[in-house]
Q: What sequence folds into this?
């Protein structure tokens, strides 16, 4: 059996010098590499209409949601704070529909950074719009301009959780975010936190939906142990 994993694409919101319009859908290569090294076949799902989400999910065996913009606060019932940076409600709505379709179909979902936040909102949870202002975060959760593959802070995992089983109790990760999970969505459990109590990993009650706040795809070339996240995800496909 060839396992097919759909990766929801991002798209250019602003014109660039090379691409004068925003009609470009894309996904960073590192996500594709992580999946290929897990011996699965990646498919990029172009950003589209939420009504098409079910058909997209029917064509793949699992779903990966990548990083990117912040999630629009009005989608979880809040007015945006001044600290909210760029958002893309069209991407948010499409990916939320993909998560719901995958959950209904019983297909596994992996969310990375923004992707984990989208999962949480799709399942009825909410976010800290800014972890420094609202959650009292004290660590550096956006390491830019430090090189992407360099771990910059530690996380601690819950005993027996999926992350604990594959990476152990405590390890260092990279970090590129200022939003984070506040109240977990339905049937989601927090399985990893930073030392300043920012949520760094989640798992659904049935184990089919998982997420991390850091970026394993950026680290796996130098820190190959993070390939285990993609390998574990591939094994969730029945």
A:
């Amino acid at each position: 059996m060839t396992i097919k994993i759909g990766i929801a694409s991002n798209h250019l919101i602003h014109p660039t010098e090379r691409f004068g319009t925003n009609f470009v859908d894309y996904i960073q290569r590192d996500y594709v590499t992580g999946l290929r090294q897990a011996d699965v076949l990646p498919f990029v799902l172009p950003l589209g209409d939420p009504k098409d989400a079910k058909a997209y999910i029917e064509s793949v065996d699992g779903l990966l949601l990548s990083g990117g913009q912040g999630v629009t606060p009005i989608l979880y019932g809040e007015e945006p704070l001044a600290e909210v940076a760029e958002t893309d409600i069209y991407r948010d709505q499409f990916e939320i529909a993909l998560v719901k379709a995958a959950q209904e179909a019983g297909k596994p979902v992996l969310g990375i950074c923004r992707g984990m936040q989208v999962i949480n909102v799709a399942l009825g949870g909410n976010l800290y719009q800014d972890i420094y202002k609202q959650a009292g975060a004290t660590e550096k959760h956006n390491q830019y301009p430090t090189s992407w593959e360099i771990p910059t802070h530690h996380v601690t995992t819950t005993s027996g959780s999926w992350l604990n089983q594959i990476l152990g109790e405590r390890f260092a990760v990279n970090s590129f975010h200022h939003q984070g999970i506040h109240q977990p969505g339905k049937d989601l459990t927090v399985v990893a936190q930073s030392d300043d109590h920012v949520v760094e990993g989640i798992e659904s009650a049935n184990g089919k939906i998982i997420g991390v706040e850091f970026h394993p795809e950026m680290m796996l070339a130098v820190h190959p142990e993070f390939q285990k996240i993609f390998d574990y995800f591939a094994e969730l496909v029945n």
Summary: The chain has a mean pLDDT of 96. The CA atoms of residues 73 and 88 lie 11 Å apart.
